[in-house]
Amino acid sequence: MGVELLIGATAATVLGIIVGYVTILGARAFGIGVDCNQAQYKSHDHCVPRLGGIAVSAGFFSGGAVLSWLGNYQTDVFFVLSLSLMPALLIGLLEDFTQSVSTMIRLLVTMISAALAYWLLDVSLLSLGIDALDYLLLLHPAVGFGFMLVAVAGVSHAFNIIDGCNGLSSFIAMIVLSSLAAVAFQVDDTFVMCAATVGAASMFGFFVWNFPFGRLFMGDGGAYFTGMLIAVLSIMLVSRNPDVSPWFPMLLVMYPVWETVYSAYRRVVIQKISPGTADRLHLHNLVYFRVVPRVDVTTDLVRRQVLRSSTTSAHIWLLAIACAIPALLFWDESQSLMLCCGLFALSYVVLYRSLVRFRSVSLPLLRSKKASIEAPSEA
């Protein structure tokens, strides 16, 4: 299986790179699916295709097909998994092309994808690692089904939330998928290991075009597809392998999930606005404006913004790595994983409030002598 997996992953990366290049050329030639920073809350100032979902999905589908053909292993499962991901991918791409699909519609269609995975792959939440919640899940299958819909849609939306800087969501997705593959290997879950590996490889094919120069954005299609893939594989790994704590994948995606939860709290409770209102107050926005200094190595405005965006992502990567390390160390210890999730949530709030109140910390990758005040205040 080792050689077949290597070939499948290579195919996913190569196809991701090729399709990404063709997508860039096509979007520019026909002027479709191009993001020209028409929204006030965006931090770039140039036109870039936001159709990275085409490259990511093409890489995953082709890598899975090659792996199935070479190894003749669970071809039907790869096909059904791909089928369940399609609604989330298509509604995201529709938004990328038209910029007219509401957040609620996208979440509902993502839940349809989750429902397909539930019925076709028998993917369901059987345990949350907390006795009281586990009791609720066992009361009736509908309860577990509802929890799964919310969890999958939430993770998918979370990856869309953090998709704001070059290489941010794609690198974090690679870390998460690689970690899922590593633990799947330890518990001998060959399918999850292969699917996660191919997913990480296809993400790298997109990453080549996204970081550091931002020639292709992931867009809603790529973000929802990636979040769906991670959520479904996480549930599969936990439900098929009782030794794996349900808090293992939770810690892996703690940054995007907590970013989403805290953003909703901030908008509803503090700002008294709709939780779906877009703004420039996400953590990556604050790091971009208040931690990463202006890059003056070039007089070109676009290039300066691209370099700042990529540097911001490199700072945020540290959060994902800080979650992945203990997750891999304690993947079968729920108490330790829950403690790590709590510590991350607390650390995030302290860091966020420090940045909002201009008490910026000096991050190790780049130190700024003077904090920028471009971003609006929290309240």
UniProtKB/TrEMBL annotation:
Cofactor entry: Mg(2+)
InterPro entries recorded: Glycosyl_transferase_4 (IPR000715)
One Gene Ontology term from the biological process aspect of the record: cell wall organization
Major location (coarse): membrane
GO molecular-function terms, A-Z: metal ion binding; phosphotransferase activity, for other substituted phosphate groups
Residues involved in Mg(2+) binding: 160, 220
Subcellular location(s) of the protein: Cell membrane
Membrane-traversing stretches: 6-30, 51-71, 77-95, 107-129, 135-155, 167-184, 190-209, 221-238, 244-265, 313-330, 336-355
Record GO cellular component, one term: plasma membrane
Alphabetized UniProt keyword annotations: Cell membrane, Magnesium, Membrane, Metal-binding, Transferase, Transmembrane, Transmembrane helix
Membrane topology: Multi-pass membrane protein
Name of the protein this chain belongs to: UDP-N-acetylmuramyl pentapeptide phosphotransferase/UDP-N-acetylglucosamine-1-phosphate transferase
Origin species: Hydrocarboniphaga daqingensis
